[in-house]
Design a protein that fits this description.
It is a single chain. The chain is an alpha/beta fold. Among the domains are: 2-41 and 473-496, no CATH class; 246-426, Exopolyphosphatase. Domain 2 (Nucleotidyltransferase, domain 5, 2-Layer Sandwich), CATH 3.30.420. The chain is 41% helix and 19% strand. The chain has helices at residues 2-10, 16-40, 98-103, 106-115, 132-140, 142-157, 171-185, 246-257, 280-283, 309-317, 349-356, 366-378, 381-387, 393-413, 437-445, 461-482, 487-496; strands at residues 47-55, 60-68, 79-85, 125-130, 162-168, 197-201, 205-210, 224-229, 232-242, 264-267, 275-279, 300-305, 344-348, 424-426, 429-430, 433-434. The strands form four sheets. Strands 8-9-7-6-13-14 form a six-stranded mixed beta sheet. A five-stranded mixed beta sheet has the order 3-2-1-4-5, sandwiched between helices. The chain has a three-stranded mixed beta sheet with strand order 10-12-11. A hairpin with a 3-residue loop joins strand 6 and strand 7. It is elongated. The protein starts with a helix and ends with a helix. The structure holds inosine-5'-diphosphate (IDP) and calcium ion. Inosine-5'-diphosphate (IDP) is lined by residues 56-59, 90, 131-133, 202-205, 245-247, 348-349, 352-353, 395.
């Protein structure tokens, strides 16, 4: 009993000094680890927002983007939070009643007010970019185009966002920002990977953009855009063909086939049994065709379908001019185009049309695509309507023409071959964000893609916490070991007794 007490008294672990040091040591280590964990714990995510209105020739769409608030200038990913399709037609179709162009945006803008938290409204940039519909209106009637912008501007300024202006994008910008969007969403820019080309088909214009292999930009400087993004240099080739969007190209095809001013016209690009009355003045009311208007024509003509893909292709080919090229190589209409390079993402109407025709799968060979189109175009109009009662008749009637145009544009126009055709992916969106120029436009205007690669912290959060914990444990073990000189006394004493 007394030996036991003696041992207890002499146990060095039980001296007040050791106990105090141990307790302080443990508290210090726990405090160190806690601070490390708490300090670096991700705070609840706060977001910032940006709004872009895509005022296309056929309709306007509003996109809301969001990104983590503390990372807006480099590392945070910008994603599409919401989109809203404006009811009615594109703003250029309100030339005769501009106020209605402004009013048409109200519903989607109200939706944006609900989607963006109100404390962020004032700092949220709002942009409107107009494309080929307004480019054409601007050519046709400058005053009317200015009035549309005035009305749109007035409407947008009535909302609590930070309005940054409404303008017409150049074809170059439209092509280049579409390319930025696709490659940003695919994470190719930050990682410096080989980029994907972008093919955008609208109603009034179409764009092709890609980084060529070896590229002499001096050959046609107006087709080149230089970017420095995340520390990498890109020399982008881009071209926008005004009037070669699918609605204007259809006008050109109809104009070509009615150039003699007939009363009825048989069209291989429309289904057998299709028949509508069209007005000559309405058909030729666009700068894309106005010069081709026949001198003498009746008021209307009857547009009937024949449904022959190969003959339709012949009609479409007449709309491309292959005769003159002052460069080393051209696509069509004397426009320079370097050899195609890499894979491509084809979006907007490319996707809508190919998706309807069940032809988005890249593994379908070009020959099969053509065979399917030939079969589809040859199907009687009544049967097509019965098979797709849910599809708008205007769209439904035009899928044969649009599909034929897409294949002809890609192969005859841009020179895709049966080998390179399989490198085209028909896409609507990438990782939940729509493919299109709007995201690239906003990233550029808000300087959200830095020219140089951002400095990233040497360690991610988890790595940092683990290292602090390991060091703390090592210190603790070291501390215990430092008490070692007193250990033998403690363990040997009872044996001596
Ligand atoms: O569901 C659809 N099916 C077929 N075509 C569509 C659908 N939705 C939109 N489109 C077409 O996509 C095109 C979009 O063009 P947009 O309005 O962006 O013109 P732009 O880019 O030339 O200014 C239009 O031709 C429009 O008719
Ligand atoms: Ca468009």
């Amino acid at each position: 009993m007394s030996a036991q007490r003696e041992m207890k008294e002499k146990n060095p672990w039980h001296t007040p000094l050791t106990i105090i040091i141990t307790v302080i040591g443990v508290i210090a280590i726990v405090a160190l680890v806690t601070v490390a964990v708490l300090q670096n714990r991700p705070v609840p995510q706060k977001y910032k927002y940006g709004i872009v209105l895509d005022a296309g020739s056929s309709h306007t769409a509003l996109y809301i983007y969001e990104w983590p608030a503390e990372k807006d200038n480099n590392t945070g990913r910008v994603e599409q939070k919401h989109s809203c399709k404006v009811k009615g037609k594109g703003i250029s179709s309100y030339a005769a009643e501009p106020e209605k162009a402004g009013m048409s945006l109200t519903e989607c803008m109200r939706e944006a007010e609900m989607q963006v938290p109100s404390r962020r409204h004032q700092e949220t940039p709002l942009y409107l970019g107009a494309t080929a519909g307004m480019r054409l209106l601007n050519i046709e009637n400058r005053e009317a185009s200015d009035k549309v912008f005035e009305a749109v501007e007035k409407a947008l300024q009535g909302f609590p966002f930070s309005y940054q202006g409404a303008r017409i994008l150049s074809g170059q910008e439209e092509g280049a920002f579409g390319w930025v969007t696709v490659n940003y969403l695919d994470d190719r820019l930050k990682q410096g990977l080989e980029t994907t080309g972008a093919l955008d088909l609208g109603g009034a214009s179409t764009q092709i953009s890609f980084v060529p292999h070896e590229y002499d930009i001096s050959e046609s400087p107006s087709n080149s855009v230089a970017f420095r993004l995340y520390g990498n240099d890109y020399n982008l080739y881009t071209h926008s063909f005004l009037c070669y969007g699918k609605d204007q190209v259809l006008r050109m095809a109809l104009a070509h086939q009615t150039r003699s001013g007939p009363v009825t016209m048989s069209d291989p690009c429309f289904h057998p049994g299709y028949s509508v009355t069209r007005n000559y003045n309405a058909l030729y009311d666009s700068p894309c065709v106005s010069e081709r208007k026949p001198k003498e024509a009746p008021l209307n003509f009857t547009h009937t379908g024949v449904g022959n893909f190969f003959r339709c292709q012949e009609v479409v080919k007449t709309l491309f001019n292959f005769t003159s090229c002052k460069y080393s190589r051209c696509s069509f209409n004397g426009i320079f185009q370097p050899p195609l390079q890499g894979s491509f993402g084809a979006f907007s109407a490319y996707y809508f049309v190919m998706n309807f025709l069940n032809l988005t799968d890249s593994s379908i060979p070009l020959e099969t695509v053509k065979a399917n189109l030939a079969n589809y175009c040859g199907t009687p109009w009544n049967q097509i309507k019965q098979q797709h009662p849910e599809v708008k008749e205007k769209y439904l009637a035009e899928y044969c023409f649009s599909g034929t145009y897409i294949v002809t544009l890609l192969t005859e126009g841009y020179n895709f071959t049966k080998e390179t055709f399989s490198k085209i992916k028909f896409i609507k969106e990438i990782k939940g964000s729509d493919a299109g120029w709007t995201l690239g436009y906003m990233l550029n205007l808000t300087n959200m893609i830095p020219a140089e690669a951002p400095d990233s912290p040497p360690l991610p959060h988890a790595g940092y916490v683990s290292i602090v914990t390991v060091i703390a444990l090592l210190l603790f073990i070291l501390f215990i070991l430092s008490l070692r000189p007193i250990w033998p006394k403690c363990s040997k004493k009872p044996q001596i007794v």
